[in-house]
Amino acid sequence: MSDKWLKVGRLVNTHGIRGEVKVLPSTDFPGERFSPGSRLTLHAPDSSAAVEVEVASAREHKGLYIVKFKQYDNINQVLPYKGWTVKVPASRRVPLAEGEYYFHDIIGCTVVTEEGEELGRISEILRPGANDVWVIERPKGRPVLIPYIADVVLDVDVEAKRVTIHLMEGLI
After folding, report:
1. How do 162-165 and 110-113 pair as beta strands?
2. Alpha-carbon span 130 to 127, nearest angstrom
3. Cα distance between residue 143 and residue 169, in whole Å
4. Which residues make Cβ contacts (< 8 Å) with residue 132, sequence separation at least 6?
5. Helices and strands (H, E) in the chain, number of each type
6. Does 1 score more than 50 pLDDT?
7. How much of the chain, in percent, has pLDDT values that exceed 70?
8. What is residue 12's predicted lDDT score, i.e. its pLDDT?
9. CB neighbours of 157 closer than 8 A, spacing ≥ 6?
10. At a CB cut-off of 8 Å and minimum separation 6, what does 8 contact?
């Protein structure tokens, strides 16, 4: 399995006795990922095994997706997969519009001010509400939280793994 994988959810529990499962989505494209006919791969928590499945049906319910896989018809068949990660090959990632980025493309980028001062690397992306917040781990000191807004983030170069920001007063 040398293919790079993208996590699209986690199988958190079974649902009923007919082989349906509850999936907590971690994708911006759940409608596409969990549509009938979609092929997904379930990965064991310790990465020791992977199982390819095909979606027969899915519906959203209270922030989760209730998914039925074609290969499984009862609870005993899907119960062993509880806690497994749901992934797709990176080759099947959905193209994004200009100015949009995948989290895995942003995490690890070096952040510099428009004056060229290096602040640190992006370690995490938070989604508190109105806009995303990028967590920058600094070599010394506490992490810096940078809002992903046009006034602050000036340039994102995914290829060079470099983000240029305008350091507004009060951010550090």
Report:
1. parallel
2. 8
3. 16
4. 125, 126, 147, 148
5. 3, 12
6. no
7. 98
8. 95
9. 163, 164
10. 25, 26, 27, 29, 30, 33, 40, 86, 87, 88
